[in-house]
Amino acid sequence: MISSLNFMKSLNSRAVLLSNFCRNSSASVLHYEKDPGSVFINPDVQKLLKNLTNPSIDVVFSKRTVPDNSVSYKFMTTEELQKEYQSIVRQSEEVLQMPPVVKIREESPKLISKDTALAAFSDTKYVITDITYGLKYSQRKVVVRNTDGTLEYASDDIAKRMKQTYIPDKGRKVRKPKIFQDEKLFAQALEQGSFKFILDRLCIQYEPFEKEYHELSSKVYSEVDEKKAFDSLRSTRHFGPLVFFLAWHKKIDNLLCDLIERDLLRNAVDLVALMSKLHNIEVDQSILGQLGTETNPSNRLLKQLQDSIEKRNHETDNVAKLNKAIGKTLDDFPVDEAILQFIETFTKNNSLKKIQVAGAIQTLREQNQEKKQLLESLKKSQAQA
Amino acid sequence: MAGRILCTNSLIKSFTGLTLSNSARNVVKRVEGTATLLQNHLPCLSASRNTSFFNKLPATELWKGVTSVSNAGKKRGRGKGVGRKIAKDLNKGQVIGVGRANILWPGLNAPIIRGKELVTQQQLPKDPEREKKLIKLRDSMGFFRVLRINPMDRGWSGSKMPGRSIGPPDAVGEDTFEGFDTRVLELKTVFIMKGNLGRTRRFSVLSVTGNGQGLAGFSLSKGSEVRSALRKSKNRAGQKLMHVELCDNHTVFHDFFCAFGKTKIFVSKKPEGHGLVCHRAIATICKVVGIKNLHAKIEGSTNLQNIVKAFFIGLLQQKTHQELAEAKGLHVVEFRKENGNIPHVVASPHSVRKPEEIPSNENLDFSQYVMGDRIVLKKKKFPPFYHGTKGHDLYLRKRENLRNQVKVRLDMLTHYGELRSFQTDKYPECRPYKHKKEVDEADA
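Structure tokens for the assembled complex are given below, as produced in the milestone run.
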């Protein structure tokens, strides 16, 4: 690398400056050294990531701009409503499907045939694209007949451009959008905190194996981690890849603090489990038994939806009402304590920001203590009444 | 009859003031030339009458003659609006005792005794401004000046009252109408016959008042003057308030049909941002009630009073979501496209019916149910008359290869900052003209 740089220095000082800039900016970007694909699609990892996404119906189906924002009404029986809810949950799974994390594909020229007889047949290259209807992106072939008569597969960028020209993907541009060209614009977008927008745009514009996709997305993930803006991506399809990225690079401390501060302890356990899975860290598995029945995120969504009917079905007893207001029942406190201890033991050996995590744990403990006292005193007063 | 003998000189003078034909002018010239010789030989008698309608009729009659319009003209609507002539009051600005000759008259335009001195009559220096002021004052009279209304306060049309705001109803005792606004919907003259007075004219005012939060009332009142009729109508509207439920604080709860007399109104609920697309009277009522988005189509008579009555009946007959849910024994579920069409339960009855309890022939369509099983006739939209003509076909064919031009231009402007072609690099001078900003010399 250095020798090549020196060589360039003698050629053109401006080019050196540029390449230095590029090198610096890419040096700060974290890369996957090994292929993360096989780990990412592991069902256990997928399950943990989906749990960590912690979808809420209001965010998954948040208000968006549509050409027709009309409202329609229907009369429905409870049974019909249940059916509708199930279809919504299925829909949400589709919406929340995570963009895959795979390694960067290295390009190598693939020669098909060398027909010297065709040399000087034309003074321009011929690009031939398969435009058969219904092919997948990866199945569609693009080949190039060079002027020297060789026939080879087109390079990735030529193939992408041709495919976009003939069978355009909605939203994808043939040219790179300005936001990904201009460092300033990109930095500005990051500054504004429009992480979801950038990541959505990245998913449209790039294939997951492209180098630029990796660089730009890792910049976004690092920024989210730095700003602790995890909530802006929670309940979106990008939260899984974000967590995977952070766990892979052992940078989960901020996220762990955030989860504890927001009292999402089950997710914190999932995060620790993910870390142990990725880095073969020994953790005490018994905690999982204490957490009781695991609920998968789809079921949780369904429950959220069904609660909206229950809410209207009035008269639930006062204790349940109180629990809802406080957000916890008396049974939750021992489980919380067990989880906190589990996290503490984990951070002792595997954390760079032990003090921050310990602080977050301490505040949560105090809050729990207060809530517990409140619940107990209320229970007592009710018993007396 | 008073007569006077005029000498030839004065005769000639009076002639020279007129335009004459050439031959006549020659005659006069000759006469002029021999004036001294003929002076005593050609006496001329001329009768001059000092009475005319000018000094016989009073000023009011004279002005009437100039400004009034004949009966037939009146019937045709003449003498109204911009060209209308109005009598000038020539006495305006004139004071007794003050005239062209600026003279001090003690006892008339000045006190008799000033201090201990006796004021005497005296000539004051002439005031050249006086005449000018008088003329200016007279010039300002004689035409009708329309009072300027702020564009925001204007009604539906011109300077007419309908659509204009006349403020909140007057407080009754301690009940004040804070936040209320009253709008005139109709103002017209009506006549009634009276035993002693005969045909008497009155003004009828229909107005609607409301606080923009669902409280509104309307009333029709008459008065002998416009102002009193307006006040009466406004105050009575304030005494007839009704409460209308608003859905999400911006629209009606559901589509509905309402009618009064021959007037039929089909009202449909609209999402936020749609605005009021309806008859102006309905729009005015909606503004006063607090409805911001709605569509209404009137079928049949557009009699204003009937429209108002029908629309109020419709508003009051609306059912809230909870009432609908109870009436049907089913959940009322809202679907918003902006939220990905996820079901959102807006109202549930106390006990929900099971599917087997619902008869097969029951109408479960929400929009049909709230419209009382009516279906709005939506007329088919026909293609424009030029569709399919030779010229239009040609136009379409010519446009076809330009159909993406706008998009391409936009794309080029974002990427290159200019419009280019594949030959721009080869021929850099061939660029569309770009207007250069003028640089100030001072800046340069």
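The longest strand of chain A covers residues 71-76. The radius of gyration of chain A is 27 Å. Further analysis is deferred to the final report.
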